[in-house]
Amino acid sequence: MGTEIAYVDGKPQTVADDAKATHGRSQAFTVNHPGFIVRGGTLPCALAPSRFARTRDGASYTQANAKTDSPRLRPLRVSRAMTNLYHTDLHEWANRQAQLLRSGRLDQADIELIAEEIESMGNNELRELEDRLAVLFSHLLKWRFQPGQRSRHWELTIKEERRRLRRHLARNPSLQQHLAQAREEAYGDAILEAASETGLAEHSFPEGCPFTPEQTLDDQWWPT
Predict the structure, then answer these.
(1) Residue 59 scores a pLDDT above 70
(2) Domain extent for 58
(3) Mean of pLDDT values over 171-183
(4) Residue that wins the pLDDT comparison between 213 and 33
(5) At what angle do helices 90-102 and 80-88 cross, to 10 degrees?
(6) To the nearest whole percent, how much of the chain has pLDDT over 90?
(7) Are 161 and 135 within 8 A, CB to CB?
């Protein structure tokens, strides 16, 4: 038993039903096309959730949207050219996707890649937190372990990084839940940087971060 679905590169494809749908039950399905990533699952007969499948080379999408006992997959007209544009001109791709979203043409938008880009934005904020912590920790280590080398430049760098960190956390409050892990990752990098700049051995520095979160961001606190 098969049900017509969206067109893939101009050709209609089918969903193979592994079980007959009955009222109030779910229906198993697989996408029956060699170009698609096969995804098994269930489609509630009353209203199926949205499901996407895409070829790895970015060819086509389908979306399941069953409202009757014979589920039908709506076409999503994401062209191969549009997906290829993502790899060749990200700026242009982003502008076109923004236009499609603002105009409500979601069926033409590259939803999966848009989702990946949004997730990437969140990851970038976490990486920035780790990078800024690493710079600050390395300078706090140098300040503590090389008091004779303390300078106005070190002092201003520490103040600047504290200021930037406070602003970054204020703009991204959800990063607080990742702060412990970010501190651990950043401190490992800071040891290497401090060892490189001071000439001290890595084991000269504490194995774990000696600065509390409060001390790290407190302009009035300086390691001794």
Answers:
(1) no
(2) 1-76
(3) 92
(4) 213
(5) 130
(6) 45
(7) yes
Alpha carbon separation from 200 to 21, 117, 150, 188 (Å, rounded): 71, 41, 16, 15
pLDDT given for residue 106 in this prediction: 83
- For residue 93, being part of any structural domain is answered with no
- Strand 73-76's sheet: what is its strand order? 52-54, 61-64, 73-76
Q: Is the pTM of the predicted complex or chain greater than 0.90?
A: no
Q: Based on C-alpha coordinates, what's the Rg of the chain? A: 27
Q: What stretches of the chain show up as alpha helix (H) in DSSP?
A: 80-88, 90-102, 111-145, 152-171, 179-198, 213-217
Residue after which a domain boundary falls, among 76, 111, 134 = 76
> 148: which residues sit within 8 A by CB, 6+ positions away?
none
DSSP state of 69: S
Name the domain count of the chain.
Answer: 2
